[in-house]
Structure formats: structure tokens, C-alpha cells
Amino acid sequence: MGRLSLRQIPYQNPILVGTFVFALILGAAIVGLVTYHKRWGVLWREWLTTVDHKKIGVMYCLIGLVMLFRGFIDALMIRTQQAIAVGPHSPGYLGALHGYLTPFHAGQIFTAHGLIMVVFAATPLLVGLMNIIVPLQIGARDMAYPYLNALGLWLTAAGAALVMVSLFIGNFAHGGWYGFVPYFELPYSPGVGVDYWLWAFQLSVLGTTLGSINLIATIVKMRAPGMTWMRMPIFTWASLSANLIALTTFPVLMVCLALLASDRYFGTHFYTAGMGGNLMLYNDLFWVWGHPEVYFLILPAFGMMSEIVPTFSEKTLFGYATMVIASFAIGGVSWGVWLHHFFTMAAAPSVNSFYSVTTMLVGIPTGVKVFNWIFTMYRGRVRFELPMMWAVLSLFLLLVGGLTGMMNAFATNDYMWHNGVFVVAHFHLMVLLIAASIFGSVEYWFPKVFGFKLEARWGKAFFWCIVLGTGWVFIPMFLLGFAGMTRRLDYIPYTQWGPYLRVMLVGMGFYILAVAFFFMHLYVSLRDRAKNRVGADAWGTSRSLEWMTHSPVPAYNFAFVPQVHARDEWAWRKEQGVADLKSGPYRDIHMPGNTGVPFVLGALALALAFALTWRIWWLSGLALALCVAVVIVRAFAEDTDTVISAQDVERAERRYHDGEVVPMEEPMGRPTPRPAT
Amino acid sequence: MVIGQTVKKWLRFTYGIPMLFLNGCAHSGLLLLEPRGLLSDTAVHYFTLDVGIMLLIIVPTALLAIWAMWRYRRGGRGAYRPDWSHSGRIELVVWGIPLVTVAVLSYLSIKAIYELNPYNPTILARTHKAAGRPLRVDVIATDWRWLFIYPRQHIASVNELVVPVHRPIRFRLTSTSVVNDFLIPQLVGMIDVMPGMRVKEAMVVNKPGHYLGFSADYSGAGLSWMHFDTHAVSVAQFRRFVAAARSSGRGLTDTGFNRFARPFIAVGGARQVFGRVQQGLFGHVVREVMRGKVWRTPMDMTENMVRYMKQQRAEQNAGEY
Fold it and tell me: B29 to chain A, minimum CA–CA distance in Å?
């Protein structure tokens, strides 16, 4: 069994045992509920084996939400540890000198927090939303490669699962989410933690790369007739630029991690300090991915804001062309700024000057975007409903995050606080901006996907708690940055930092409330869904193509592929009075058929990654061989499609017109009849 | 230059803005904003300029956003023009303002980078206040202590840096194991300290006093305890420090360093001085690490901190370190 043995189960740690019990109860409850309601068949047929881009998007978002919760618990532990472990006289529990986390445990927590929030929370949420919205916005029936889409999802899920497994078997990496070398080399990190990190990361990288190919192909090739480039909705543009970044940079990370794996598994010396290794190589390769990755996350968020602001300003987006140019400018500059992640590595002043200036250049298109949103509201009729509230929060977070970002780009400022918490506060504001846009767009597009709006009362309480929590946590953190506090401490040696750290707990309290209100928000919305049913155009003032089809969206998206006449097609149609899509008799719709192969491949990938982590060679070989075999077998499958007959389409359309609720998981279509031989 | 000075003159008015948040600075513990060295002074000077210029843009933008939201809210007084979506003049302004700002900031940033270049800070040559021949200090970061070697004086000190005020200090830094980050918030900015490599840093202290130093980059279990004290003293006091160290009689050789560099968590401090340090120890360490020398972290050393500290203390008492 390689390195795996019963000793690797951390049963001595009460925190982990508690978590395990909680996970067990939760898991049992879910299994029980599914069994009680006899939903295993539906779960398998309509969700786990689906290739429908909307359902895949929803599952991406679910993974993202679960991991967001996990990442939040990690954050809570870091904050309490730092608030307790101040000065040499602070108490210690559970084998820690101060606080309740040993350095080893604290290290795992901040590593997991970082990796989870970036790779397994923000990324799946954004990829999920792009998955749902982009095909609808361009009038397509599905993604270009529906099978690949499902594969990307299950690889990401396998990565997330591997991170979760590390909680209960063995341990996780304990040196920062971006993996320092030579710290992540065997002499300094001999355990399996780094291997968990490595393979979980690799799985998600593979998943995201496949997803980006798919989204680019979909946007380039599958737009409805009449949708020229300059008629494309702005969120689709943002997705295109984001995925171009992903496609060009994620493979670099794959190589970067593969070389580290080679060091750890084969004893090579790519990144070691001695024997001709070069740790700079790792930093370069990692951040050539790492910084563009930031824009891969933020560009879709900007796209979401650009959809929400016009809808709730009841007005066309100001400066559409400028917005497109700005998105691509940000994407373009993103490849040339990575060295600012090691300004303090004593590079020549000419080098630091170059990267300081390129980093500041990012501020130009970003600033333009801010002004364009403001001028979209200008001369509008602004309605502050929940999605708009989130968009406004994003706007202000962007102003503060942009200010501090420009401060970091000024290299000599960066020398003062490069590895300090000032930078931590800065990028948390930026990621919170992304999160706020995500919450806003979940509120915004939820009725499109599920057919009812989320209620507003708990939603507003959730919103305001996030606002207050952000203020109470990050204003003290900025001040701590000026106080010279460094990152990743599990013990606070300088007692003057203590008061700020304790004030931050107030903010964490607001965040805990926010999480509670979020669950209430979901629960009440589900309970009262009958009251909040909506038609196709949930908000009444939306402008793009996705609001033309029914809510919830039928499996085939559009009964008739729409002909596009204008940039804001739906707004144009409402003005012209041609809102009805029906343009003749219903026809059979050819759709991709469900398949369990991606799910199986995901499970095998999880087994492979787990086996590699624990160095169980027979299982690694077996899982890899099975992966290859499954892919080959799938390549010979012929009937991968289904047809939704004209009658079925007509029946479904009639039900929508009668205002009937058509559940999302209702099966539609049947396998293509094999031609008689 | 002229532009720079005009901007500076203008910005004097904005200097007060960050200060509003920092009243009672001397007791706030905001170390980065209380510089006591030539380089940190310069850095804070440019920081204030940078923030001032940025606030000139950000504050009006935020006010504009609030105004637009308020005036054009539903039921507000603003006239509703749903089709208005383009204005060449506004586009020019919204591209122009960030462009000009970034141009000004880039100029200042490049100027600051050259003035604070750790290998050759031009600010040092320009201000002739700094007196005397530079004092050389070689810094070796181990897991998890700082060894400060004074190669001309042949002495060394652990986790305690003693330097004379007003005299330029020239550091050479390396690490035995992983990447650390050398920082004294009130005196000098961060510089990465890397194994098998040598980087340089320079510093001048303007005021005698006691300053905290930290290791900033994550280096493992002992990182949180890897802070050190900097004492900036008069020339006479510095001479006394050197003499005292020499008379301590403890030597540090290449082989002794091999023992010293084993993982050690400096809980409760780890001060020591060495009176006779082998010539060329710094270069020796760099070469050894390049050849592949590794001080391993034991697999279970930090899983139970209390137990590990007991073990470490026992070894310490046995004279192992």
C-alpha cells in the first residue's frame, strides 16, 4: 500500500475528528435523503451523466460553494489562532506552544485556504457561470464539446475531493498555496502533504484547460446567425478573453508542477538549491501562470458587472467597444507582469522598472472600465435590487483594491511589504470583488436557470454582513500591513499587532452571520419558490439573448435558433415587438446524449492521484491503464447523440406557454435510432 | 525633474490625508510609516507621493460614482436617456486620466527603483550625510535563526544585529536551506535570502535605537520565532560590542557551522556571539549549498510543538548547539 497505513489517520487531533464526524453525519443525511426520495436513478441519469451545459454549470457552482465554505472555515481558524497566539505569555492548547494550532497544522490550513479559494472555489464558480450563460447568450444549444465539458467538471471534482480526503488521511501541504521551492522539495517537506497539493492542483489545471478550449470553440463557432463579433454580449467577450488567458497559461503551470513532481518522485534537480537546480525557474513558471490566472478570474467578474449594471440602470452599456478593448488589453498585459511577484528577489533595477511599469499599465483599462460603469448609470434609472447591490459593492472594492494594487505596483512600496499582510489585504479585496460579482450574478441569473427569483430579505442581510465583515477584517489588516506584519505567522512575536488581530475577530463574526444568512436565503427562497416564479424576462429590463428563452431553460435552450439583429438583441426585440421566437413549425432537435464516461474518468483520475500521492504503484498503474482503456472504448462509441422530436418540443413549449413549471431534471430526448443494417 | 518638483509641491497638500488615519503615529506601532533609516525614509517619501497622486484620482471617481447613483436612481432627479451610450469626449477623458496618472507614477517608480536599488542605492551616493567606510555584514539565514557575521572584525552574532548609526552598512545575504526574506521595517525593505545564492542589500540608520527585524518569506515551523533585534549605536558603543564579542572566546568554524545550521526553533530567543569566526565562512556556505549540502527538516519535528521544544531544549543543554 505504498506509504499508506492506519497510522496516517489523524485520530489524535480533536479538530479533525470533529470535522470527520460532521462530514460523516452530513454525508449520511444526504445519502439517506436521496434514498428516501428514491432519487438515485434521477441523480445518475439526469445529473452525474449529463452533458447539458446548464446542469454542468450548476454542478460546478455547487462544488465551488462547498469549497468556499471549507475555505471559510480555514480562514476562521487562521484568524482565531492569530488572535490568541500573541506574545510569549499567550496560552497554548493541543500541543501548540501558543494558540491551538501547531506550526505544522497552521501551515496546512493557510495552504489549503489559499489553494481552495483560488482553484476550487472561485474558479469552479466562474467556470460554472460561464458554462451556463455563454451558450445561452450566443443562442447556442450546448457547448461545442459537451463530452469534454463534463470531463472538465469531473476532473475538477476529483481535485476538490482529493483536497478533502487529505483532511482525514495523512496531511496537506504546509508551506503556502503557491508552493515555495526548495521548501516543497523532499528534504524540507518529506510528507505526502505536498503530493496531495501537487496532484489536486494538476487535476484542476487539466479540467480548467479542457474547459477553456471548449468555451473558446463555443464562442468562436457556435454563435447564432446574425451575431457578429461586435454584437456579442459583453459577458461573452469577457469570457473569451479570460479563456484565451487560461488556454495560454494553464499548460505552463502543468509543466511547472510536473517538474516539481519529477524532483520529488525521481530525484531530479530542477528546483533544488544545489546540484545545478534553479529555484528562480519555479517562480518564473509558476507566476507566468499565476498572474494571468488572476485576470482569468477577474475578467468574467468584470463581464458580470457589465451585464448587471445596464440591466438595473435600464440603459445600454456605455462604451461597448471600449469595454471590449479594455478586456483584451487587461488580458494582453497580464502575460507581461508576473515578475512583480518577486520584486524583492534582487533583480536589476532595469528589470524591476520594466515590470513595475507593465503592472501599472493594467490600471489603465481597469480604470476605463470603472468610468464606463459609472457612465452607464449616468442618465439611467438605477434600481438597487440585489444583483445591483453586489455590482456596486464590486465597484467600490475595485476602487480600493485598485488603489492598493497600484501601490504594490510601485516597486519600492512593494519592498516595504512584499511578504507582508498589506499584500494579503489587497488581494483579498480583489478576490472579494470577484466573489461579490459572483454572488450578484447568481442572484441575477438564478431565475433564468431555476425559474424563480431568490427572496430579497435574507439576501440583503447576507449582503450587509459581507460589507461589514469586509470592513472589520480588512481595514485592520491594511493597518497591520503598515505595522510591518508579515504573512503566514502562527505565532505573533510583536505584541503591538495584537489589538488589530482581535478587532478582526469582529469582522469574522459578521462573516459567520453572513454564512448563516446565506443558508437562510437559500432555504427561504426554495420554500417560497412558488411565490417567486418568473417568466422568460425575470428582471423586466434585461437586454441580452438568454432572457428570450423560457425560465427554467429547456434542455434544448431555444426551440428555434434565434436570428440576431442588434447588439442588445432582447432589448431590440422588445422595442420592435418581435419577442416571440416561433418562426414556423417545430422541428426535431439534435442534441448530445448523456454519458457516464466523464464521471468514470473523474473517479479513475481521483484513484490515480490518490495512488500517486501515497506511492501505491500497483493502483497508479491500474488506474492509469483503465483511464486509457476507457478513453479508447469511448472513441469507438457511435450513438452518442439523441434527438428531441418535434412533438416533444411542441409539447414542452406549450407547457411553458401555459405557465406550467417544467422541472429542470425532466428527461427529454431519446437515443438516436440506429440505422437499420 | 521640473515636473517631479511641481508635482511634489502640489502634493504637499495631500500629505496630510494619510496622516489623518495615523494620528498619534509614534505610538501606533505602524512601523513602516516611522522610518529611521536613509533607505526607508526614501521609500516612505515615494510612498506618500504615490498614494497622494492615486487619491487625487480615486476620491473624485468614488464621489462621481456616488453622485451618479444618487442622481440617476429610479425616482431621482436625473433625466432618463436610455439610448445614450457613447460620447467621444468622455471616452477621451476616461482613457486620458488613467494614462496620464500611470505615466507620472511610472516615472516616479523608476526613479525610486534606482535610488533604492539594493545593490547600489544611488540615494546613498547622492546624500553625503552617510559618513565613514561601509561596514560589511554577512547574513546567513538558517532554519530558523539569523547569523550576522562581521567579516572584517571576525566576529558573529546570532539573532542580534549591532550597527553604528550614520555609517553605511553593506550586507551580503544567503540562506542554508530555503528562501527567507530579510526585513527591518523601520530601516530597510525586504530582500529575498536564497540558498546557494548571494544577494546584497544596503542600509544607513539615522537614529540610534532598537529596531525589530523579521523573516518574511515562509520557511517552515520556526518562521514565527525567526525575528531579530537591531541595535543602532554610537561608534564607541559599537567598538565596545566588537571587543566584548572577541573576548567571549567562542569560535565558529566551517564544521561548527554544520552543527549550528541544523533546524532550531528560536523560542525564547537564541542570542549568542562568536569571537573567532573562520575567514570566508560566508562563501564557504554558499559553495556548500550549491554543491548540494542539505540540512533536512525531520519529518515529525513540528507535529507536536510542545514535545519538540522539550527535545530541543534537552539537546541545547547538552551543548549540542
Answer: 6
